[in-house]
Amino acid sequence: MRLVLDTGVFFRPQALEAAMQHDGDLVVPAVAYAERLRQVAGQGQRHVDALRQRVRKFVEAFDADVAEIRMPALTGLDRRTWHRLARDAFIASHVRPGDELWTTDPQDFMALGLAAEQIVAV
Q1: DSSP annotation of 42
Q2: How far apart (Å, rounded) are the C-alpha atoms in residues 69 and 120?
Q3: What does the alpha-carbon distance between residue 68 and residue 23 come to, in Å, rounded to a whole number?
Q4: How many domains is the chain partitioned into structurally?
């Protein structure tokens, strides 16, 4: 089982530590990584370097294969919902059958069609 991390997990030190100890594959979607890089950049280069050193090897790119996983199913979202949940939609696209998504916002991912049993609230 792959474990996919949403950006909010980076604000929960115990959850992040548990994720880093996960026996299976760990996935940090490129969008979540970019969000966190932006957040720590204001704290200085050493924080950016620490994040890069610890997390970069787990980053999964948002490419055509990832886009095709969930994006076609989201055509029914109204414009307002899309604007509110677009980054979460990009993150959700990394979740495959059998994966778990760890997040601080489970309701957003359920609104995007992820199965409740794949979502772990941290």
Answers
A1: T
A2: 20
A3: 27
A4: 1
58-87 residue pLDDT tens: 999 999 999 888 888 788 888 999 999 999
Q: Are 101 and 121 in contact (CB under 8 A)?
A: no
CA distance 1 to 88: 21
**Which token pair is 44?**
């200085």
Residue in the structure block whose two tokens are 């929960």: 12
pLDDT tens readout for residues 4-62? 999 999 999 999 999 999 999 999 999 999 999 999 999 999 999 999 999 999 999 99
Parent domain of 51: 3-121
Q: What single-letter DSSP state applies at residue 23?
A: S
Q: What is the number of other CB atoms lying within 10 angstroms of the CB of residue 83? A: 9
Q: What is the mean pLDDT of the chain?
A: 94
Helices (runs of H) and strands (runs of E) counted in the chain:
6, 5
DSSP assignment, residue 118? G
Helix (H, G, I), strand (E, B) or coil at 119: strand
